[in-house]
Design brief:
By secondary structure, the protein is of the alpha/beta class. The protein is 32% helix and 16% strand. The longest helix is centred in the middle third of the chain and has 15 residues, at 30-44.
Length: 102
């Protein structure tokens, strides 16, 4: 929520809900993904909402490590919003069976 402070339910201390991605923003190019991520970081500062980017700037495993807490008992996300290029998002969905858009 822009203009206000809202902690996603999965990030509330003591919550039993594992942190999950709340939104996926798909953009057509790496350059635009970088711009959107930069602007998101500016406008979300102080809200507790975080974003990660998957657009091919890092190896798949590096992007996955940046986004997912693999040591958790249940799969969970380190970010609330994922900014992605279409091809890279499909690569992650194809490669990691626990990643879904459901």
């Amino acid at each position: 929520m822009l203009g206000g402070h809202r902690t996603p339910p999965s990030h509330i201390e003591g919550s039993t809900i594992p942190p999950q991605v709340c939104a996926v923003v798909v953009v057509p190019s790496q350059e635009l993904a970088t711009q959107v991520h930069s602007v998101f970081e500016l406008v979300s500062r102080g809200t507790g909402v975080s974003a990660g980017m998957v657009c091919g700037q890092l190896p798949l495993e590096g992007e996955r490590a940046m986004l997912c807490n693999r040591e958790a008992i249940l799969p969970c996300s380190k970010v609330d919003v994922v900014i992605a290029t279409p091809g890279r998002l499909v690569e992650h969905l194809d490669r990691y069976e626990k990643w879904t858009l459901i």
